[in-house]
Amino acid sequence: MRRYRAVFLDAQGTLIRPYPSTVDLYREAFRSSGTQVDPAQIGQAVSELWTEHRRATAGQSRFDTSDEATRRWWDEFNTRLFRRLIRNGNPAPFVAASWEIFGRPERWRTFQEVEQVVEELRRRGYRLGVVSNWDSRLLPICESLGLARRMDFLLASALAGVEKPDPRIFHLALATVGVSPEEAIHVGDDYEADILGARAAGIEALLLDRDGQHEGKPGRIGCLTELLEKLP
């Protein structure tokens, strides 16, 4: 059995989530720009656009290698979202509102089990860190949620200049806490970014599958509490 000394965790979808939901925040952005849109249509359009994006950029660096790159990517994504849902109109107010609303720390929450799991991992003596494809706004969000003080480090790809699945971001995480790849395990909800990226760096990885889309897949866990069962 491998002896782990460090646990790395993804952020969105693993530790934190938009509050009340992604659709609710987009709906607020539409309202603030003077437009009303059916929530069901928002959810469907976001899902479709994200799927199209993943197919188009498979195997490529995506968008979180700098704050500027992140802002450009999301401005383009949200412009496309607006135009998919609204036939006429200027997308600029919606795009600006979306960026501002999703960046507010109060618009994020941790998942229900996160605090208990993180505190137990700390009690067991593991070094803990967040490894996430995010811009620098992740830091004040984690600070507001009490995660920053519970972690040994927060590694946002936009500040590191490299994003998952590039193994270099995991090498940075390893160096930060001074452990070898064999002594670390990473948990995330994105198979390509989290699982393939970590494994490319020689780190074991677990796929967090909260929605049950990968039942029976090796290395799958349905909740972070299951991580505790796998770590001594």
Task: Please give a structural write-up.
The protein has helices at 22-32, 39-56, 67-85, 92-102, 114-123, 138-144, 157-160, 167-177, 191-200, 225-230; strands at 6-9, 16-18, 108-110, 127-132, 153-156, 184-188, 204-208, 220-221. It is elongated, with a radius of gyration of 18 Å. The strands form 2 sheets. The protein has a 6-stranded parallel β-sheet, with helices on both faces. The protein has a two-stranded antiparallel sheet with strand order 2-3. It is of the alpha/beta class and 232 residues long. The chain has 2 domains: 6-17 and 108-230, HAD superfamily/HAD-like (Rossmann fold), CATH 3.40.50; 20-106, DNA polymerase, domain 1 (Orthogonal Bundle), CATH 1.10.150. The model has no long low-confidence stretch (mean pLDDT 94).
Please outline the helices and strands.
Elements: E1 6-9, E2 16-18, H1 22-32, H2 39-56, H3 67-85, H4 92-102, E3 108-110, H5 114-123, E4 127-132, H6 138-144, E5 153-156, H7 157-160, H8 167-177, E6 184-188, H9 191-200, E7 204-208, E8 220-221, H10 225-230
Parallel strand pairs: 1-4, 1-6, 4-5, 6-7, 7-8
Antiparallel strand pairs: 2-3
